[in-house]
Specification:
This protein is mainly alpha-helical. It has helices at about 5-20, 35-45, 50, 55-65, 70-75, 95-110, 130-135, 140-150, and strands at about 115-120, 125-130, 160. Helix 1 runs parallel beside helix 2 and helix 6 packs antiparallel against helix 8.
């Protein structure tokens, strides 16, 4: 349940040894989701300039455009692949490789959109940007499902649906 916390403890601990100030790209939108890494950040005195400036993700993207970084501003979020494995499941290298393979395959087919391939307790879930998902014909949805099914292999069920942020994390 706290793997992000432990990962960030290691990351921020290492960065703290490299310099006096460690800053993270956390923005105000990140504060509404369960983020165990923020506890590690607090423990290591990590600063959050975008939060201090009361900037949401859209504000950060707008700033990037003003600074001439439009290509970066338009990139979808790309969190750690381990965040795609539901709380309570062990993070296995083979499953991380599968997640990467499926997401790469889908981006090749659909473009650089927001999507997640998630390993859930009951199987695999692929979540696509809502507008993209809604625009898919039933035949295209079936074709994408079959393509994902082939890339994943095995006997676990696979679902393809609209994207919902944060659905792999469960906290008590």
């Amino acid at each position: 349940m706290n793997r992000c916390y432990f990962c960030k403890v290691n990351l921020y601990g290492t960065l703290s040894r490299m310099g006096d100030v460690v800053a993270a790209g956390t923005n105000t939108d990140d504060l509404s989701d369960y983020r165990p890494g923020l506890i590690a950040a607090e423990e290591h005195n990590v600063i959050h300039p975008f939060v201090a400036a009361d900037m949401a993700k859209s504000d950060v993207r707008a700033l990037a455009r003003v600074l001439g970084l439009g290509d970066l501003a338009d990139l979808p979020a790309a969190p750690c692949l381990a965040s795609r494995i539901q709380t309570g499941l062990r993070v296995e290298p083979e499953e991380l490789a599968t997640i990467d393979r499926v997401e790469t395959l889908l981006r090749d087919a659909l473009g650089n959109i927001t999507l997640r391939c998630r390993r859930m307790h009951g199987g695999w879930e692929v979540a696509l940007d809502g507008a993209v998902f809604d625009a898919l014909t039933p035949a295209r949805r079936t074709a994408l499902h079959d393509m994902v099914r082939a890339a994943i292999g095995g006997d676990l069920p696979v679902t393809v649906q609209a994207y919902k942020q944060g659905s792999t994390f469960v906290h008590v």
